[in-house]
Amino acid sequence: MTEVDLYNLSPTARLLCVGFFIAVVPLLLTLYKNRGRNVNSKMRALVVLTLFLTFDLVMFGSFTRLTDSGLGCPDWPGCYGHASPIGADDHIDAAVAAMPTGPVTHNKAWIEMIHRYLAMSVGFLILVLAVVSTWQKFKGHVAEKDAWQVRPFWAWLTLVWVCMQGAFGALTVTMKLFPAIVTLHLLGGIGLLVLLSAQVAWVPSVQREVMSARLRAMLWLAAVLLVIQIALGAWVSTNYAVLACTGFPDCNGQWWPAWNGAAFQIWRHLGVDAAGQNLPFEALQSVHMVHRLMALVVFTYGAFMLWSFKRNGVLKDLSRWLAALLALQFLTGLSNVVLDWPLLAAVAHTGGAGALMMVLTWMLSCTRAPGR
Asked: Cα separation of 347 and 238, whole Å?
């Protein structure tokens, strides 16, 4: 496929129709389930639905990456200029014949296109949120005092964010799994979960749990550390460095293998350094070990923060969720190393990272410092 073929917009209208029909079924079911309720209750149910489907999308994106299906259709937004792999059968057959174990197969093409269909359906739901919330504000709809309210600014910000995600999704394909782009695409998915979680969890200030400024600062620091760790985890995954270390807690029989920072050069193609030379194995080991060390920092800090919350009697229920998710992350991360990267554990590891950010967002959204 030549460079000019990487972007083929001819199937865009048909793809948008597919995304619409995927989204409209749960949308109508949600509206039917909430019939008779006030508009804010319906809108909140719609945000919850969008958050749920976005979490599913992030998980399926992880599945797409981990099954090496990211280039299952090597053009964008369709598959060899078609709205589904069915129309691209001849092209896929030719690709398989030329390279039977290559990035393009019928299964991988379907996985990649399903990911794109889901992304378009989520984008449609976010567009509905933005338009309806703006319409409600234009009508002068006023929610009950101290109730959850529609906030058009956040809905439109989320729409802009998901459009940027679509752009990074396109670049992921057309730049051939460029590690920096794939990592930003994953971080963008996490950011989308945060934006939607903040809208679901938002409550008026008077209803928020009061906690000291020090404890809220601990929450913000936890969020920063977790974002750094997620970025490092994405860097491990996008550089295929998960199995660079096969032991635990050592790495291939060494507590600290020889350091090589070539893989931390950000702007480079997959498998090579910035000069175009193949990455040495030691570089992948270094990426893996940095992720492990940061995991130790995050777990230690998380345990201390949860102990502080328990001591001060705040956020009891959410703290249990956070503790359970930290334990899940440890178990799935360990499984990836000692069980040779099982697909279920790897996908769950990405989902756990997203869930941790959602819980931290909820904690920040439902608390306030004294006097605020």
From this structure: 14
Answer whether 283's CB lies under 8 Å from 261's CB. yes
Coil, strand, or helix at residue 37? Answer: coil
CA atoms of 213 and 45, how far apart (whole Å): 32
What are the angstrom distances between the C-alpha of 102 and each of 5, 55, 197, 286?
19, 29, 38, 28
Q: Cβ distance 59 to 156 under 8 Å?
A: no
Instruction: Return d(Cα 153, Cα 303) in angstroms, integer.
Output: 35
> Under a CB-based contact definition with an 8 Å cutoff, are residues 361 and 201 in contact?
yes
* Dist CA 351 CA 349 (whole Å): 5
Spatial distance between the Cα atoms of 223 and 316, rounded to a whole number of angstroms: 18
64-122 per-position pLDDT tens digit: 999 999 999 999 999 999 999 999 999 999 999 999 989 999 999 999 999 999 999 99
Q: What is the largest CA-CA distance in the chain?
A: 69
Structure tokens at 172: 């992921």
Q: Which residue has the tokens 């020090």?
A: 214
Q: Which residues contact 14 (CB under 8 A, 6 or more apart)?
A: 78, 83
Active-site residues: which are they?
112
Compute the distance between CA of residue 181 and CA of residue 165 in angstroms, rounded to an integer.
Answer: 11
Number of neighbours of residue 216 by Cβ within 10 angstroms:
18
The predicted-structure confidence for 193-251, as pLDDT tens digits, reads as follows 999 999 999 877 778 899 999 999 999 999 999 999 999 999 999 999 999 998 999 99
Confidence bin at 1 (pLDDT 50/70/90): very low
| Residue 151: DSSP 8-state | -
d(Cα 239, Cα 277) in Å, to the nearest integer?
14
What is d(CA 270, CA 279) in angstroms, rounded to the nearest whole number?
9
